[in-house]
Amino acid sequence: MVVPVLILVAVLGAAPRAALSLELVAPAEECSFSDGKVVVIGMGTKSPTGQGKLKWEGGEVPLSARAGRFYGAATLSPGTHEATLTFGDETLELCWAVSPQVPAKQYEYHPGVTNLECKTCHDPEAPPPPSQDTGPLCYGCHTKYTARSAVHQPVTKGLCTACHDPHGSINPAFLRRSAVELCQTCHNRPIDKAHEKHKDDEPCTECHDPHGSSRAHNLRRR
């Protein structure tokens, strides 16, 4: 059985993607869903105003703009859906597939997002700053790691969203990218005897705790 996947393609005529001011924040641009409940969150280099729309062959829903972001929710039936997201004079052309199966790039929303519980995490009337200490907020639901003897630097600063996407992800633990890619944005994999046996794509988190540890080098165990 061929499992359909969700592919998001954004074009504006023959113009390159960079020419668009609209940008999807959620969901991921290439992923799939286990059910048809879809929440679209986006932003623009030009703050969207007024009302947009998400339209597909099975229906249409409005998109509201607030604090430089736009959002809306739709329920799609199983199968493949060609859709258009329009805001102002710009359009994103989308092709979505919904399957009850669990394909490799299944998108999972962070709890609360599908119910549009925006106020739980941030002020929907104000755009979130590019960088902020979200530790106190995240620790309302998640384990607090700052009490460990060795704490990873982003954790000490409360930069949880530097690694985790608060809206959703195709990666485990809502990571923005794969664990290897995330680690390598700041760290180079050492070429030494301790790492020779590990493959380049083997997650660093197999041995190191990305939040912190009581052991040297944030090792999980000796």
What do you see in this structure?
This protein is mostly beta strands. The protein folds into 2 domains: 6-120, Immunoglobulin-like; 135-218, no CATH class. Helices cover 6% and strands 29% of the residues. The protein contains 3 helices and 13 strands. The protein has helices spanning 135-138, 153-156, 179-184; strands at residues 6-8, 22-26, 30-31, 37-44, 51-56, 59-66, 69-75, 79-87, 90-98, 108-109, 150-151, 168-169, 212-213. The strands form 3 sheets. The protein has a 9-stranded antiparallel beta sheet, with no helix packed on it. It has a two-stranded antiparallel ribbon with strand order 10-12. A hairpin with a 2-residue loop joins strand 8 and strand 9. The model is unreliable at 1-19 (pLDDT under 50).
Summarize the structure.
The chain is mainly β and 222 residues long. Helix content is 6%, strand content 29%. It has 3 helices and 13 strands; from the N terminus they run ββββββββββαβαβαβ.
Shape call: globular
Low-confidence stretches: 1-19
Q: Please outline the major beta sheet.
A: 9 strands, antiparallel
Radius of gyration, whole Å: 20 Å
Q: In the CATH hierarchy, what is the superfamily of the largest domain?
A: Immunoglobulins
Mean pLDDT: 80
Q: How many individual domains?
A: 2
Briefly note the structural class of the backbone.
mainly beta
Topology:
Elements: E1 6-8, E2 22-26, E3 30-31, E4 37-44, E5 51-56, E6 59-66, E7 69-75, E8 79-87, E9 90-98, E10 108-109, H1 135-138, E11 150-151, H2 153-156, E12 168-169, H3 179-184, E13 212-213
Antiparallel strand pairs: 1-3, 1-9, 2-4, 4-7, 5-6, 5-8, 6-7, 8-9, 10-12, 11-13
